[in-house]
From TrEMBL:
This is Menorin-like domain-containing protein. Coiled coil: none annotated. InterPro entries: Menorin_dom. One of its GO terms (cellular component) is extracellular space. Residues 29-262 form the Menorin-like domain. It comes from Muntiacus reevesi. Belongs to the menorin family. It comes from the Eukaryota.
Length: 276
């Protein structure tokens, strides 16, 4: 992946280059990046800000009850309410040195959120990732966010932001779980090959091993591309699956936003010390 001109002023800067330059990691290895997932409510947000995490991930929706005058709030469906608005969340996060990843489940929340981000952009000289699942994926039944208006809306405000573009997925313990198909990765490449900024593809850890050829092909299409490995709370996968990913993909181009206890076991297995 290439960084863009402007250094820390650019939201396209490779997060490894950024955190290495700021002496927060010791080498260009995606496994060194520590994530805090779902920092939505104020308790989780404050915990994330106190933690050793480099990147804070949070979910943005519009309230369904018309509260806060339609202002975006921090919650992950099926939750529809929160004690935290995006405006409040940003006001706290800008006091830290954390990178941020905002995850959108609907198009309606995107434009008002970009307006709020624009208000604080000068205080956010750090990595900013904007995420949505824009294509149907393996075993998924959630509705994808329409890719073109999502990308167009974000880039109309921030042409240099880093995109995180994924597929809707599911994982079922009693069924055969399909991986990412050739059709899925080729559709994603069709969406992304016209973009100029970095794109990371969030992929479900339990589905990567059976999709290795497809995902390796996708990464070969551009040095702007990377993977972010994530896990569902009830997914069944092994540390060996994570080590398989580690062995087959470029360490500079794979990030691991995975849950405990697997995160600790994985870092231990590859010799990365975890700062608690």
């Amino acid at each position: 992946m290439l960084g863009f001109p402007g250094g820390a002023r650019s939201w396209s800067e490779n997060i490894l280059e950024y955190f290495l330059r700021n002496n927060q990691i010791t080498t260009e290895d995606g496994a060194q990046i520590i994530w805090y997932h779902a920092a939505n409510h104020k308790v989780q947000m404050n915990e994330a800000l106190r933690s050793a995490a480099h990147m804070i991930e949070a979910d943005v929706i519009l309230p369904s009850d018309g509260s806060e005058h339609g202002q975006p709030i921090m919650a992950h469906p099926p939750e529809i309410n929160s004690d935290n608005t995006l405006q409040e969340w940003l006001a706290e996060v800008i006091k830290s040195n954390k990178g941020i990843k905002l995850d959108f489940k609907s198009l309606a929340a995107v434009e008002p959120s970009m307006m709020l981000l624009e208000n604080v952009k000068k205080h956010l000289k750090r990595p900013v990732w904007i995420n949505a699942d824009v294509l149907p994926g393996p075993n998924g039944n959630s509705r994808a966010v329409d890719a073109k208006p999502f990308i167009d809306t974000v880039t109309s405000f921030f042409p240099d932001v880093t995109f995180s573009l994924g597929w809707t997925t599911g994982w079922h313990p009693e069924k055969v779980n399909e991986g990412y198909s050739w059709t899925m990765v080729k559709e994603m490449e069709y969406i992304c090959n016209e973009l100029n900024q970095p794109v990371t593809f969030p992929v479900r850890a339990a589905l990567v091993r059976q999709s290795c050829s497809q995902l390796l092909w996708l990464l070969k299409q551009s040095n702007r591309y990377s993977l972010t490995i994530w896990t569902g709370k009830n997914d069944s996968y092994s540390i060996e699956d994570l080590l398989f990913i580690r062995d087959h993909f470029d360490k500079k181009r794979v990030f691991y936003d995975i849950l405990e206890p697997q995160n600790h076991e994985f870092k231990q297995a590859i010799g990365i010390k975890i700062n608690l």
